[in-house]
Amino acid sequence: MLDLFAEEEPWQEPLAPGAVVLRRFARARAGALISAIEAVAAVSPLRQMVTPGGYTMSVAMTNCGEVGWTTDRRGYLYSATDPLTRAPWPPMPAAFSALCHQAAVAAGYPDFQPDACLINRYAPGAKLSLHQDKDEPDLRAPIVSVSLGLPAVFQFGGLKRNDPLQRIMLEHGDVVVWGGPSRLFYHGILPLKAGQHPATGDCRYNLTFRQARKVE
């Protein structure tokens, strides 16, 4: 007899050359990932950073790994030290590293060696404006992005800010990987709609894995 409520298996959804959505890829490991987020945030708290233009970001952020991405009125940078605690960022949890490696392999990037993971927490109304991830010295490495909790609309465009946008609903456990021809495509998140998710309550978490240091 067909079970209409059975959990669907993960599947791949092509997005652009070099880019793919791995649907439900992280769902089975979400509990471990969320516990690891809480452990990281207990050491390096989530905070709303201020951009060089003086804008306070609506998304709360922290990092783990060898380096972390930060922004202030002076610019955008990667740093080995958390400017809030003045201590090194927490090491990348094993659950993060394992999931990222498996997702990168599934997307066709088996050599990806992330050394930074940016953790974003979206409350209702929080968004991420269209931008390129271009602060990394080696743009041959892809980006691996994991969605947990409330659904959000991901915008994925092209190499120019005004290129046509795809709008993709990302749900709990979905992973997006992009690199190669689409590595510098503009992308963002539309304002998060209010809701409740059994795993994260009234928010959404996003893990963004990057290779912030050049690997020879």
From TrEMBL:
A single cellular component GO annotation: cytoplasm
A UniProt-annotated Pfam family: 2OG-FeII_Oxy_2
Top-level enzyme category: oxidoreductase
Example GO biological process: oxidative RNA demethylation
Cofactor(s) needed: Fe(2+)
Annotated positions binding 2-oxoglutarate: 120-122, 204-210
Record's cofactor remark: Binds 1 Fe(2+) ion per subunit.
Keywords, in A-Z order: Dioxygenase, DNA damage, DNA repair, Iron, Metal-binding, Oxidoreductase
Catalytic activity, as annotated: a methylated nucleobase within DNA + 2-oxoglutarate + O2 = a nucleobase within DNA + formaldehyde + succinate + CO2
Binding site for Fe cation: 131, 133, 187
Binding site for substrate: 69, 76-78, 135, 161
Boundaries of every Fe2OG dioxygenase domain copy: 113-213
One Gene Ontology term of the molecular function aspect: ferrous iron binding
EC number: 1.14.11.33
Function: Dioxygenase that repairs alkylated DNA and RNA containing 3-methylcytosine or 1-methyladenine by oxidative demethylation. Has highest activity towards 3-methylcytosine. Has lower activity towards alkylated DNA containing ethenoadenine, and no detectable activity towards 1-methylguanine or 3-methylthymine. Accepts double-stranded and single-stranded substrates. Requires molecular oxygen, alpha-ketoglutarate and iron. Provides extensive resistance to alkylating agents such as MMS and DMS (SN2 agents), but not to MMNG and MNU (SN1 agents).
Protein family per UniProt: Belongs to the alkB family.
The name this protein goes by in its record: Alpha-ketoglutarate-dependent dioxygenase AlkB
Organism: Phytobacter massiliensis
Gene name as annotated: alkB
